[in-house]
Design goal:
Blueprint lengths: L3 E5 L8 E4 H14 L3 E3 L1 E2 L2 E2 L3 E5 L2 E11 L4 H20 L5 E10 L2
Parallel strand pairs: 7-8
Antiparallel strand pairs: 1-2, 3-7, 4-5, 6-7
Helix pairs in contact: 1-2
Length: 109
């Protein structure tokens, strides 16, 4: 597991471009916090963190979530996945992260 994801290799341009895992983590958290239908699992009032792993320039994101009551689970997760992919593409020029949702329940408020 690496702390950096390589966006551009040295032989593709003027130098190597790598992004730290904390940058990826900040982008992921920002996207999740702005979504109204998907919420991170809370344990004793503390939100669980999404797990982000970088292996050979492949970003894997997994998280335990609750879906807002009355919303469709599949479409809510797909919308969040598309938002995550879009923001990673716009901010760090990374395509096709692996996103896994573990839906643990519903949020009723």
């Amino acid at each position: 597991m690496s702390d950096y994801v390589v966006i551009q290799d040295q032989d593709q341009g003027y130098g190597q471009i790598a992004v730290n895992q904390s940058v990826i983590n900040a982008i992921v958290r920002n996207v999740i916090e702005t979504d109204e239908n998907v919420h991170l699992e809370e344990i004793r009032g503390l939100k669980t963190q999404p797990t982000i792993e970088i292996d050979d320039s492949v970003i894997s994101i997994s998280m335990k979530v609750r879906i807002q009551y009355g919303k469709d689970v599949e479409s809510s997760c797909l919308n969040l996945k598309k938002k995550l992919e879009n923001q990673l593409k716009l901010m760090v020029d990374y395509d096709n992260p692996i996103v896994e949702f573990n839906v643990v329940g519903f949020k009723f408020d």
